[in-house]
Amino acid sequence: MMNHWQQLLPVDQYRVTTKGILREYDRKIIAMLYQPLIGPLSMSLYFTLWSELEANRLWGEESNHYCLMNTMSLPLKEIYIARSKLEGIGLLKVYKKQGQQDETILLYELMAPLNPEQFFTDGMLNVYLYKKVGKSQFAKLKRFFSDDSWNVAEYKDETKSFTEVFSSQLDSLYVSPDDTSELEVEQGSTFISENTVQNLDGFSERFDFGLFFSGMQSSLIPKKAFTTDIQTAIAKLAFIYGINPIVMQSIVLRAVTVDNEIDVEELRKAARDWYQIEYNQEYPTLVEQVQPAKYKSEVQKPLSKEEERIQLLESISPRELLIQHAGGGEPSKADLQIVEEVMMKQKLSPGVMNVLLEYVMIMTDMKLSKAYVEKIAGQWSRKKVKTVKEAMELAKNEYKQAQERKAKGKTTYSKKTQKPVRTEIVPEWLKNNETKDKVEKVEVKSDEDVDFEAKKAELQAKLKEKYKRKG
Prior knowledge:
By secondary structure, this protein is an alpha/beta fold. About 50% of the residues lie in helices and about 5% in strands.
């Protein structure tokens, strides 16, 4: 992730625009449905930019980000993070150009929020909102944005058509050739209309459709059934519930109708059912699947293997990390439960949890000991570790101390009685500068075991010295 000052400076000019009218009803939608997902700062930024439009309708006056910082009483970094959330959730589009004097000029286009029907049937945003606000509040929000329906089938349509009411007098339609230009839209102008909605994107790029289609037989589902909307729905569901392409094949088969079409609602239901059975949970959590943006490093281009690793651990969830270490295999429910409980109880961020997992697996022969994980997590929580880099520094110190204790314990044993120690490849970030590519495996299950071995060695050394004096 780039530093915010590499993307945005206080002197950068900006102008706000929109393609259509934003209604007062949109304020309620953003405040009540979007705010729980993007937070109050992002909502405040949206409303602040919106206020610059209200005097001039579709275009605001040119300003700079220093003025925006003063208006919102926020540092530029927080404004940049809030802006990014608006972009990601589809409420803002950002355009950039260089001016004649090489100054940066930004164009902020405000997008309309989804209407209540679109939001509550979205299949993704409604799921995240439910998880965020809970069952009771979610039900209240649905009632607030809905009303009783009426059965139109009980009524007969008596509405008159245009031709029944109006007649056309051809002679009255004559327009002088000199006035025909008035019937055309002036170049460089656009009519004011209702604002458009920005669809959320980026899901299809994360889903391996090549692998998905390679296992789908055309005899079961024709290729034409996978329309653009269906593929978008599949990619969204895969992102929300963490479904891989192979599992998604069976889920899609459960949503096929008798007409060889894919029912989107049945597809969503099948994905939810799979998630509930697989993880014994009703719905997944939103942003906390990966490291929050405010705790991510701000390195434009990785300069070392350690920085590359930091960015990776910031960009994946603990579950994805376990899958990587298993060579693509799904982690066990017991391991996932350990991770979930530790993150909830100790309030560890996902990136910090990733570092803890890597450290523990190296120290315990790729096993997750719940007691060991909880002990380290408690220590890191008390130290208020929030970033991946901070967690790595602590892990390095712990690892160095463990190596020193082991080396101290080994001095009391002869080469004949010393057991062979298996070697294990250690991540680059955990090594000291002088450490070789392979280091000796620290055979511990917990810190207590290490301390016990060290004390035992120290005691044996004292006894040996005592017997020498007596002799």
